[in-house]
Amino acid sequence: MKKNVIGCLLMLMLFNARADHITGGEMNYTFTGMSGGQYTYQVTAKLFMDCYSNRRLPNPAYFGIFNKGTGAHIQDLSIPMAHQDRLLLTNPSQCITNPPNVCYDIGFYDFTVTLPPSAEGYIIVIQVVYRVQGIANLSPGYGNIGATYTGEIPGNGQQASGPQNNSARFTGDDMVVICANNSFSYSFAAEDKDKDQLRYSFTDAYIGGSGGGGVNFPPTAPPYQSVPYGSGYGAGSPMGSNVKINPKTGLITGIAPSDGIYVVTVQVEEIRNGTVIATQRKDLQIRITACTIASASMPPEYMLCKNSNTIALSNMSTSPLITSTNWELFDNKGVSVYNSNSAITSFTFPDTGTYTVKLVINRDQQCSDSATSMAYVYPGFKPDFTVSGICFTKPTQFVDATVTSYGTINSWAWDFGDVTANDVSALPSPTYTYTSMGTKNVQLIATTTKGCRDTVVKNISIVDKPPITLAFRDTLICVPDAVQLKAIGNGIFSWTPNTAMVNGNTATPTVAPKTTIIYAVHLDDNGCINHDSVKVRVVDHVTLQAMNDTTICQGDTIQLHLQSDALKYSWTPVNQVLDLTDPNPRVVTWSTTSYQVIGRIGSCAAVDRVIVTSVPYPVAFAGPDTTICFATTAQLNGSTEANTFAWLPASTLSNLNILDPVATPTVTTAYVLSVYDNKGCPKPGYDTTVVKVLPDINASAGRDTAVVIGQALQLQATGGVKYKWVPYFYLSDPTIANPVATYNISSSGILYKVLVYNTAGCVDSAFIKVKVFQTMPTVFVPNAFTPNRDGKNDLLRPIAVGMARIDYFQIYNRWGQLVFRTSTNEYGWDGTIAGKLQPSGTYVWVVKAVDYTGAPYMQRGTLVLIR
């Protein structure tokens, strides 16, 4: 069951702390009797203001009375405020999250007026400055806008009993809130003491006073101008297309737009004996907040009328209080065709038709709610219209061009986007006369007999004269040719003078003057006039003079030039001209060529030629590319038949005045030989030779080492692709990078040299010294050293012989403090700790290692530091 969460609405009035604070108003009256042939009325007016605005309602307030038909001023009244009420929301529903603080003041003004009989009736008016700023459904940048609130007293011209009228009085609760993007309903219902028939509709909100200082002042006479509605909004849709008003009950329902302030004006027409005798208005700035309501919220209808029969379903309420969701779709016989418990789902209808969509949330729980909507599935509906006549103060014709595949079009709602309140129509193809110029936002809402409804919006420009578009404003013909003039526009065309003209009353006359003449075109669009002109220049021959003959380098592109008044050109030969119709084309010439051009003005023609002589580029040969080793030289070998030449870059060449200089590049370098001759081509010929410099060889034979007799030593050279070791004895293979050396006698040092070659055969060398000890694997540690930085015996180094690795070598002082540690062979201690010199004395060392057989090795000893 649908729940009414305090109407789920709350009207909030937003204010600026200056003069922009008035948020709504309304007026009603009671007929109290006649005296001396005059009618007396008790009038009550209400003005709304936010409690937090720090502003005051006008006291007194100025009212004006005017003749409703002529706008003639009757009288002004200064009325003190009768009383002021404050409305405060104190108990919001538990199903609303993030409820706003709501408080606003209402000022009441009561007064009596006595008026003589009038055929037209009267309008009572109050104008205030200003409305609140930042209203979301008005055009951006509108600034401060005042407000006008009215009440109408009927005359006796239409109904003799008209003046004896009690106005309709709005009875809806003013304490209402609307949560953004949630469904809502809010009543603008009224009651009428006379039991007149009441009809409700949205209408324009009026601009009002513009006085300074926020002070109320006597109002101006009608008519009153509408506020400037923004795109997507209007007098008939102040909260967008998803919000409607019931014309019989005044109930507003739909899906609220995003949060913001929206000005909404509702009029109720009092109908007596089939005639509208008076219209009363209520104008409110409704604030939509970012609160959420646990509700079943969806559009009042789903229009699947364009090109899809798939419906997408989601609850527009995002309240965290929603714990369950159920969707169900029914056909027009009440048979269920789809059911889902997903919060978001979709369904493709198997056939056209009208379906019912039902949404239930929190079934049998707190904040349960349900809603139903209609889905119209009739693809192929497209609203459209055409426009003719766009002149200010002249009728503009609108023609419906809507198409539909199902049913017929049965309803049209036009909004012509003008500043008046009467810029609407329900005719299929209406006319409208605009009261101002500029761009108009025209809207058509079309409806079909199947229930489909859609909106099309177009911008049209209303101007003071019909636009004329000319195909050209200046042209040239040659006697005796004719030319067709062409103008584009809506209306009746005529041309003057009619000299040598055919069809002068059309948009496209043909003229054949013998001398230059200016033809004026006149466009009449329903009495709206515009003028323009076309100049037709006349000659009796074509002027054509080509450029002088020229010489270019073979294969180059050159641009040819003409002096001519021709309108069309044709060049040959076609395979060398890049654009055959260009008066100044670019051409590519490989051999001497005669280029011919024909220039035409209609049937007249002229011919001329340009001879372009082609001269070959001078030939240069810089020699073949070469590759050299790092830090070596290359001999260049250039050749040419030209009479001058130049090499670049010059910095690494031995001589720039010869064709075969010596190059000494440090990196790979491209040497360019440029040659010049005097045979007619002023440009140089080029050729390039590249000298590739191989990188320097980083030859390595490894670190010097020591082994014991019988220990296999794996040598490892790097830096090249080919290797040669000398001497070769004790080596498994002297021609590989990693031979194995095995020794059977001791040696104080064998010095090996390895030659390292790269891919080009460049060579470098490196050395390694191998000591061979006739002993068991051991680590030699000196018993003393003198770290005095004289370059002699400054480091205490462990020397491992026959060891696969050193796990650690450690030195301790007399107090057992570790002063040095390493696992690298022959890496020594300099007698310091963190850069601080250690004292002379005895130190203890410990070494742990693994020999080449895999056996562990452990040794201790002492050493003396001498300073």
TrEMBL record:
NCBIfam families registered for this protein in UniProt: Bac_Flav_CTERM
Protein keywords: Signal
Annotated PROSITE patterns: PKD
A family per Pfam: PKD_4
Coiled-coil stretches: none
Species of the source: Niastella vici
Keyword Repeat: no
Ranges where the PKD domain occurs: 411-462
Protein's recorded name: PKD domain-containing protein
Position of the signal peptide: 1-19
CDD domains (alphabetical): PKD
InterPro entries associated with the record: Ig-like_fold, PKD/Chitinase_dom, PKD_dom, PKD_dom_sf, T9SS_type_B
Keyword Signal: yes
